[in-house]
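Here's what a typical entry looks like (FAD:protein FMN transferase):
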Amino acid sequence: MKPESVSGRKVLIPPLGGMPRPHPTARKYVLEGEAFATAWKVILLADPGLSERAFAHLNKRLETKLDQVDREMSPYRADSDLTRFNTAEPGSFVELPPMFTVVMGHALDTARLSGGAFDPCLLDAVEAWGFGAKAVPDGLADVSGLSGGGWRQLTWQADGMVRPQGVRIDLCAIAKGFAANELLRLVKAEPGCVAALVEVGGELTGWGVQPDGLPWWVEIEGADAVIALHEMAVATSGDSRRFFVHNGKVMSHTIDAKTCAPTASNITGATVLDPACWRADALATALMVMGEAKALDFATRQNIACLLRVRDGDSVREVLSPALEAWL
């Protein structure tokens, strides 16, 4: 984004531990592809000495990491570790790879923190409403036999978990953010790389600055604001990407665990800024479910930097948490 495009908008600059040093001679590379049925992109700045061979090897490592996340956590793949857990005999212990259990630990921590507003065990409801591998239902889904809160029955272990009766995991609301973190980690470890902006399915994380010293300016989805991303991530959950309309009502893909139905809150979009993209990803989902009053109270108590887009009749207004207001 050009700096002049920032004019007239809210400009959000997170606290910096120290100004990152620009590299005026750095070369720009763009790597991109598809994973998790969505697009990913890395804008990379590197010293001119980075060889084409090193660049190709880095690209391969990024693709391999994305494939690993997909192979372990995709609910759409019959051969994924997540599907293996979800189809295991109830009461049996399922061995799981280390990366999966790390993400599962993050998911359970966020579920506890949010009082279940973020629930990683709603796959049955997601599929019933047509937001999984199945088609969108003709009318309202029958979820009378479903209930949320299955995550409370899970006991986290570093090498796997016991699958409780009726519990099926869905990590889609945290896996993309985690994948973005992993890609940036690989970029940082590559000698010669000096800055990068990583996007996976709309979730972004940034490091360093552009050659002219300007930050990575990123637009907040659906809002009149931009943020400077350095050692910071941004994730948005909303009802504008995946939804269907029933009797004139927007049915969001974000499921409320209390009803096992699309959230009926007055929040149409929630954006979270956090150093960890996985946490921003998961918390954005939780805030969508809570509704304005509870979400703002939660964000204030937990010092979460967030922007909420709230329906107010026929209009939408923006509400910033105190932590985010401090960045103006």
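The chain has a mean pLDDT of 89.

More examples are in the samples folder.
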